[in-house]
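Inverse folding, one chain.
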């Protein structure tokens, strides 16, 4: 079976409902926490480390929910939402590989914010570079990622870690 290498908004919404990778497996969050509109490229080869990559996008408009509350009179997308989007994508990658379990963010190494997403922006692009995956009883993805707004890099994260768990009872 040939794997799909791009996913539409509808595909990602199916994933948020547990329909893409099957019940009990990797899911993206539902809107409003879904921070991706489409995955334009996903591959098990390529990227900085030659072990896989994802490119995803989020369309920005001034009506997005977070601009109204972060901050009143000074609207900006919270940096933690861009970081969460990168974790979402690492978990999606693990599910796309066919691994079982529910995704949980497990941490990150160094995270840097050196720009912002304003309501006047048009598009956020996420680039995820897979460093390593462990696909045994422990399912773990480790990646580096960057966030760009309208072509300018504004965040970076090293050592993004996401695990898939068949049971989260003791997590």
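Residues assigned per position:
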């Amino acid at each position: 079976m040939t794997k799909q290498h791009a996913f539409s908004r509808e595909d990602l919404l199916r994933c948020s409902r547990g329909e893409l990778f099957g019940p009990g497996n990797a899911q993206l969050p539902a809107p409003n926490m879904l921070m991706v509109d489409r995955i334009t490229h996903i591959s098990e080869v390529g990227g900085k480390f030659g072990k896989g990559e994802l490119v995803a996008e989020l369309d920005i408009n001034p009506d997005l929910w977070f601009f109204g509350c972060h901050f009143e009179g000074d609207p900006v997308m919270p940096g933690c939402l861009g970081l969460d989007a990168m974790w979402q994508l690492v978990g999606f990658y693990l599910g796309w590989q066919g691994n079982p379990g529910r995704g949980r963010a497990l941490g990150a190494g160094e995270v840097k914010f050196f720009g912002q997403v304003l309501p006047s922006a048009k598009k956020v692009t996420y680039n995820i570079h897979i460093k390593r995956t462990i696909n045994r009883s422990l399912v773990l993805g480790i990646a580096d990622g960057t966030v760009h707004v309208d072509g300018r890099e504004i965040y970076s994260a090293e050592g993004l870690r996401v695990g898939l768990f068949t049971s989260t009872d003791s997590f």
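The mean pLDDT is 96. The chain has two helices and seven strands.
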